[in-house]
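(Protein data)
===
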Amino acid sequence: MNGIDRRKRIVGILEDSDVPVSGLSLSKQLHVSRQVIVQDIALIRANGRSVFSTNRGYVIEKQKEISRILKVIHSDEEVWDELMTVVDMGGTVKDVFVYHKVYGVLRAEMNITSRFGVEQFMEQIATGKSGLLKNVTAGYHYHTVLANSEAILDLIEDKLREKGFLAPIQEYEPAELQVKLKSK
């Protein structure tokens, strides 16, 4: 395991823990010395994460993410623009789903957080081996978008509205989905 992967694992372990995690425990889990853990913690801090040292171990400030479901419609050619709009404004495209009148909700995880992620997704679609999920419902689809604040989600929603990507809610959509969409 290289240093980048190890630091990701450390962050994951700390985020998943409800109690402080000792350096010794981390070093045993990751099969490295405690000194390597101390250096990794310093690098994690240098990259902007708040990691606190206590007398019982390390604690990380959990990053909160807020989600919002956005109903959108656009052409295949506008997928790139839609996804880039979200990630450029600080959002994550967690998933894509459609509400099909026969099959119900069909969902696929995306977890796109960056321009690089958008490019990778677009390359996979370009191979032609699979199509876009939105095309089974005449282009209408939903994304669960994550961000660090309601303000960022508002900006993303406003920008998608400005570009003409937001779609109206229909009476046949599930009631719980209508409530989530209308409350935003």
Strands lie at 51-54, 57-60, 66-72, 92-100, 104-112, 141-147. The chain has a mean pLDDT of 89.
